[in-house]
Amino acid sequence: MLKRSALAGVVLAVASLGATAAPAFAHNYLVGSTPAAGSIVTEQPGTVSITTNDNLLDLSGQGDGSVIQVTGPADAPRYYGDGCSTIAGPTLETAVQLGQPGEYTVTWQVVSTDGHPISDTFSFTWQPDAAQVLNEGSATAPECATAGSGQTGPADPDAAGTDVSESGSAVDVTDLLWIGGALVAILAAIGVTLLLLRRPTPK
């Protein structure tokens, strides 16, 4: 009975360790956007947004914020919006009025709950009806005029879909420490379990 109780305790301890370590590796991921990727838009959207599976970190003013950049049409791209983005829980959005018809690309960057900046792109087609007022756009990427916004342009689109961080090496070390600590704890639990199981049962 003692051996079974000890073994059950070890199993619970290892399970708790796994539950504690899991958040260290949990990156946010995209669950939706407005407009939707690949959609056809016929009316000015007013805002362009992306929504992830968890709340986003708002690091504006610290030089590593979140931003959405809208460019198009594909054959003669210009920038649209004022460069300012806002975070509401898991959603990042920016005010945008589109220009000439065609394919538009949205490039976004956010900071997930575990501190990893992530970025990606998606496209949609703009087919305005005659009632829509078109924006001229800008030849250069807009910068948010809000003082201390700390917003910067999105990461290089060529690296979209991957973690992007100037402190990437520090993040890797942290992850390795988590892995190393978890392995040490698991090995220690196995060793204790083996010792308890090999101990002779009193008659």
UniProtKB/TrEMBL annotation:
The chain crosses the membrane at residues 176-197. It is found in: Cell envelope. The keyword Cytoplasm does not apply. GO terms for biological process: copper ion transport; response to copper ion. Residues 27-125 form the CopC domain. Gene3D superfamilies: 2.60.40.1220. InterPro entries: CopC/D (IPR032694), CopC_dom (IPR007348), Cu-Rt/internalin_Ig-like (IPR014755), Ig_E-set (IPR014756). Residues 1-21 form the signal peptide. It holds the Pfam family CopC. Residues 137-166 are annotated as: Disordered. One of its GO terms (cellular component) is cell envelope. GO terms for molecular function: copper ion binding. Keywords: Copper, Membrane, Metal-binding, Signal, Transmembrane, Transmembrane helix. This is Transporter. It comes from Cryobacterium zongtaii.
